[in-house]
TrEMBL record:
The entry's keywords: Coiled coil, DNA recombination, Meiosis, Nucleus
Subcellular locations according to the entry: Nucleus
Function: Required for proper homologous chromosome pairing and efficient cross-over and intragenic recombination during meiosis.
Listed GO MF terms: double-stranded DNA binding
PANTHER family xref list: MEIOTIC NUCLEAR DIVISION PROTEIN 1 HOMOLOG
Mnd1 HTH domain sequence ranges: 16-75
One Gene Ontology biological process: reciprocal meiotic recombination
Family as reported in the entry's similarity comment: Belongs to the MND1 family.
Residue ranges annotated for the Leucine zipper with capping helix domain, each copy included: 150-204
Name the record gives this protein: Meiotic nuclear division protein 1 homolog
Coiled coil region boundaries: 79-147
Any matching Pfam family: Mnd1
Amino acid sequence: MSKRKQVSAEEKRTRMLDLFHEKKDFYQLKELEKIAPKEKQIIVQSVKDVIQNLVDDGLVDTDKIGTSVYFWSFPSKAKIAKKNVLDNAKTKLDEYQKKLDKNLEIIKKEKLRKEITDERQALLNKLKALNEEKSRLESELKKYEDSNPVEYERMKKSIEVAKEAGNRWTDNVFSVKSWCKKKFFLEDSVIDKQFGIPGDLDYIE
């Protein structure tokens, strides 16, 4: 029997993000522990750690509604993270470009003197290092060319829609409780226990 291929931690992160981006929905941990092993071949024991790792990196959002904790991540979330990296890379690139221009000017003056000095050699070595760093940053920039800040606004709207839906259902629950109290003369605690309604259920601010 062939040994099952082990999935790396990075691959688990990628698969979990793909799951969120494909479903575009909100999940509790217990739901993800059922879905991830079946659809993304992530073992159930790893699901919690993978999600927490993504939350720590800002790639997955989480919030507590009542007594339940929900997780979600829309495709735009990854693009926003890429945009932040892109902005940082651009800033660094500008800084290195200024340093490069300054050193090029110094080297130009040194070449006019045509003297092979230790200072000139040090500047040449620094120039080489700056050029290499510039090339690395330019390559990094190309990875994030598809970043689109417009997606950020779309994500905000999606969160607002989700919040409104949550409050709408909370309102429905309160309406049903009120009807039950009037119809059957029941206490809040009895209704909550009977129907599994969290005692601290409230609207999302």
